[in-house]
Amino acid sequence: MRILFLQGYDGGSHHAFLCGWMKHTKYEMVALSLSGRSWKWRMRHGAASFAQWLRSRVEDDTWGKIDREQMTRVSIASNREIDESDIDVTWLRGVDVVMATSMVDLATFAGLMPSVLIGAKFYLYMHENQFTYPVRQEDTRDIHFGLTQINSVLTAIGRGGKVIFNTDYNRQSMLNGFATAERKLPGKELQFAEEVIAKRSEVIGVGIDTTGLRKKAQKYREFQGNHPTLRIVWAGRWEHDKQPELLADALKRLDEIGTDFELSVIGERFKDEPCVFAAIKQQHGDRIKYWGYQTSREAYEDALCQADVMISTAGHEFQGLSVLEGAAAGCALVLPKALAYPEVFAHEPNKVSWYLENDVEAIVIQLCRLAEMKTQGHVLPKVVESAMRYDWLRIAKQLDERVGI
To answer: CATH number of the domain that 89 lies in?
Structure first.
């Protein structure tokens, strides 16, 4: 079977999903990707850019002669020995499935694509939904991005495929967000879409490489032996919705009460990152082990595998890949009892150190409890079994079964 994968925004969990599935699927897969920046613009132009690129491969001059030097840069990747020159009419005619992610306007693509793809089934993978994705306080939510995703959902189902969400939390928040948005619309003509989403969608999470993380973590722990200092790692996008100010407040309290800790704060950084990160570095610089974006996968894994505890302060999370990877690396978890976390760790809820959202004192209590356990030589609670449920070998098999002809 042949899959054409449309990656409208190649960053973060979107990139991890594509790379993981492409590596482990038993099917032939070719992916067309746009770089992971300016997501709003990617949603607006991505469908036309993909269609233009594909039309250039079949020498379709419906839109006039296509100057390939002027086209939007589209990256191509494959799990077979296939390059750009191999993508022609014959190859496209053999495509069985078009899989797009939630940053692609699939309805527009279906109208603009070359006719050679008319026989393919369409699938949509929902990493996030734009009805509930957090916006900055100074911004106004543009519900048209959410409505674009509704049209993409209907297109996938209408073309014989399905919609797959990374978590049920994401699915339910989309349904709830859509219901709220409907109250702002002039009519109820799209209300039927709620039932379609509820009945014709399913949940398969993004996978992780558990084996590599577990082996590396075991080597580190055998080498380091008993280490009395509590090693804390925080991993996530350096943006407002990850609520780094909660981390800063918790660390300040730990410092005030004399808790011995080491700190790693890692993740993708942006031009307008919250200033609280600079404050954390200034106040706890002598405790910092890893800081900022890790330029290699190896360095990122090192930061996880050398930590005792992973903490999340997120105010938004549709799945939480870094937390799952931290769990696979043997970290104890300190998480808000909200968002997607209770679902993701539903099989080992008693092994997670939960706190109520935005409760700094509860975060401090949990971290102090874990620090005391470590000082006394106790083994910290691990949730490795939950992480194993998201191993790519298992997830890829589920995805292959869903899209299989």
So the answer is: 3.40.50
